[in-house]
Amino acid sequence: MSQATLEDDELFDEAASEMREDVEASLAEARGALPEADAIWDVEADNTLGVLNALKGALDVGDAEDHLRDAKKWFAMGRKADAFEDADDLEEDIAEVEALLDQIVDANEQVGELTATIPELRGALEDAESEAADEEADEEEEEEEEEEEEEEE
To answer: Is the entire prediction scored with pTM above 0.85?
Structure first.
């Protein structure tokens, strides 16, 4: 083997090692950017809407999506170049972070829908209560009028 080939192999091995480190670092950053479990569990608010808004904020994934994208990009490049001796563990880690991220994003969307729905529901319930109270008052008034008419007869 020529000296150039040995140097190329060493450079490739070094690049492959750095690429693996980049994937692992991006995955660690993605995990670090995910919300903490306590942040979505312990919420303080005065009402339901406040709880939902706090939860929606706690479910923000921040830069996790960007870091995961970087990890997937470096992984795809390394795999295509056949730079990894054992890529299964990286692939599993990427899939795990991606599934968790998807779950958080889905939860965030559901909370967002509830956040929009709760004030509308409250308004509808208040209207229904008001209508029921008005109907009850009308019925009481009719009963009083009937009693007065009976007394006059």
So the answer is: no
